[in-house]
Design goal:
Blueprint (H helix, E strand, L loop, with lengths): L2 E6 L4 H13 L5 E9 L5 E2 L2 E2 L7 H23 L5 E9 L2 H12 L3 E5 L13 H9 L5 E4 L10 E5 L12 H10 L2 E7 L7 H13 L4 E7 L4 H12 L3 E6 L4 H6 L15 E5 L4
Parallel strand pairs: 1-2, 1-6, 2-5, 6-7, 8-9, 8-11, 9-10, 11-12
Antiparallel strand pairs: 3-4, 7-12
Length: about 280
């Protein structure tokens, strides 16, 4: 079955890195990659060309420049990526990035978004840009994989999946996680962080359901005794040199809260490790 993947780009170095990461992640697998650029004359900025320099045909010029940059990106990508199982298509559309992403996912029935964690206009001191955080929050029918600057795929030895076992999962919620793990023969390390190791009856039941959801992949269960979950996850990931963190966002506003408060200091691993965000499909 052919995978259909959306890769938003603003033509920044981070966006390009996300593209090459995506093609490596699904090497030798039938995929259609949709390279998407959204533009607006208020925020438009490609190279040294500013919206203020445009005349009455601002939108047309912005559209033409967007298409030109997509064409250049596509030509470069095809010259560097000889994978015959990969097909690339481009989308240039006027509008806010999140709106264009949502409409494209719906119209094309896409199953995964892969994007850089920061764009051209984000501050260097932040781990996640505003577009990435918004995508992880608002795109709830499709997982989003955020790829930090300069991170290369390498060997995907293991994927860390933090959980508190308070909620049950469904196979379709974790489908992309399992598929990636099987393809790369990665171990999914289910990580429970809590001062108490003993699980309640409900947590044990949810743990069993999770095991069923992960069937087909290699997985293991781990416990760390700590009251600081974010630091515990970071320590676990760094000590084992894990290559990917996956989690389910069950609460609206969760990522906005984390990535806009001092808590981000505890999550510094995400400037080195990609983050796969899935959603509770019942919300």
């Amino acid at each position: 079955m052919t995978k259909k993947i959306l890769i938003p780009t603003d033509f920044s170095k981070n966006a390009w890195n996300a593209i090459t990461f995506a093609t490596s992640l699904f090497k030798n697998q039938n995929c259609v990659f949709y390279l998407m650029n959204s533009y607006s004359i208020n925020e438009f900025d490609i190279g040294d060309i500013k919206a203020s320099e445009f005349g009455v045909t601002s939108i047309d010029k912005a559209n033409n420049l967007s298409k030109q940059e997509l064409k250049k990106t596509l030509e470069t990508l095809k010259s560097l990526n000889p994978d015959v199982k990969h097909t690339f298509k481009t989308i240039s559309e006027y509008g806010a990035p999140i709106d264009v992403m949502k409409s494209t996912i719906s119209k094309k029935d896409l199953e995964l978004v892969i994007m850089g964690t920061k764009g051209r206009n984000n501050h260097s001191g932040t781990f996640f840009g505003s577009n990435t955080v918004t995508a992880m929050e608002e795109i709830r029918n499709c997982p989003v994989l955020g790829v930090p600057m300069d991170v290369k795929l390498g060997t995907l030895n293991e994927i860390v999946f933090p959980t508190n076992y308070e909620d049950s999962y469904k196979k379709r919620e974790l489908a992309q996680l399992v598929q990636i793990a099987i393809k790369h023969e990665s171990e999914i390390c289910v990580l429970y962080v809590d001062p108490q190791k003993e699980l309640s009856a409900n947590q044990k039941a949810n743990m069993e359901v999770l095991s069923e959801c992960l069937e087909g992949s290699k997985f293991s269960f781990h416990h760390l005794s700590s009251t600081n979950r974010s630091l515990a996850v970071r320590s676990f990931v760094e000590s084992r040199e894990s290559k990917l963190v996956a989690m389910v966002n069950r609460k609206h506003g969760f990522f906005e809260k984390i990535f806009t408060t001092p808590m981000v200091k505890d999550l510094g691993m995400f400037d080195k490790v990609p983050l796969l965000v899935m959603h509770n499909l019942r919300n």
